[in-house]
Q: What sequence folds into this?
């Protein structure tokens, strides 16, 4: 099978969210430490906001697995948002998407700052997640945008609402692929959108490694993970759907 040709950029970007998460076996609750460190190290200075999970005492958060990775602090930093929990850091983009090279450089900058202060313990997992909303009117039109054939018994899904999630492991990466029709969103330019969500969360679980070592080797690992995520996204789409997005190839 020939290698799939991927666009370098899209003129009509369907992206509504992009984030990178790093999870750790932290030696101390990161949410009590990192926001202040990042505030002093980042330029320009971010604004800090306490989130709802911060109202739950840390000992209670530590006992509840559902709260281990719940962000308690949010830092707004220009085009980016940094969310910090007791055991994780999430770096996400504001819209419009600043493109991968810019996003990657900010991830590396933030990770480098955390590595320098040596408070984050060992990294156990990192991931990249892209959420796309492909606009279309009816449910049937939305399904026609994606490359999916779904049949359950004698029922062939053509005009029915779908909400499916697939866990796929390939080359050591866990891809969580989610497709949901009938989705709605409002983007910052005050435009409402409706269509089908294609959400690709690509996860790399690793043997625990000190944060400084993780930081030192992160750049090529990010590139590999991003490329794998990109392949899975475009693999979900009909070629006509890709062409409607205005692909630009190298």
A:
């Amino acid at each position: 099978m020939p290698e799939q040709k991927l666009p370098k950029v899209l003129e009509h970007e369907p992206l509504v969210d992009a984030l990178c998460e790093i999870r750790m076996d932290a030696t101390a609750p990161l949410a009590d430490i990192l926001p202040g460190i990042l505030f002093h190290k980042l330029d320009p200075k971010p604004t800090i906001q306490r989130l709802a999970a911060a109202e739950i005492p840390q000992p209670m958060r530590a006992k509840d697995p559902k709260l281990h990775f719940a962000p308690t602090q949010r830092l707004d930093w220009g085009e980016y948002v940094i969310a910090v929990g007791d055991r994780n850091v999430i770096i996400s983009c504001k819209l419009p998407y600043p493109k991968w090279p810019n996003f990657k450089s900010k991830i590396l900058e933030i990770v480098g700052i955390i590595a320098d202060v040596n408070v984050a313990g060992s990294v156990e997992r990192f991931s990249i997640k892209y959420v796309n909303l492909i606009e279309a009117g009816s449910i049937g039109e939305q399904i026609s945008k994606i490359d999916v054939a779904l049949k359950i018994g004698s029922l062939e899904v053509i005009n029915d609402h779908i909400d499916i999630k697939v866990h796929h492991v390939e080359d050591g990466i866990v891809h969580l692929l989610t497709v949901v029709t009938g989705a709605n969103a409002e983007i910052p330019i005050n435009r409402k959108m409706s269509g089908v969500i294609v959400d690709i969360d690509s996860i790399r679980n690793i043997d625990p490694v000190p944060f400084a070592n993780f930081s030192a080797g992160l750049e090529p690992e990010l590139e590999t993970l991003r490329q794998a995520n990109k392949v899975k996204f475009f693999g979900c789409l009909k070629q006509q759907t890709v062409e409607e997005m205005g692909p630009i190839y190298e």
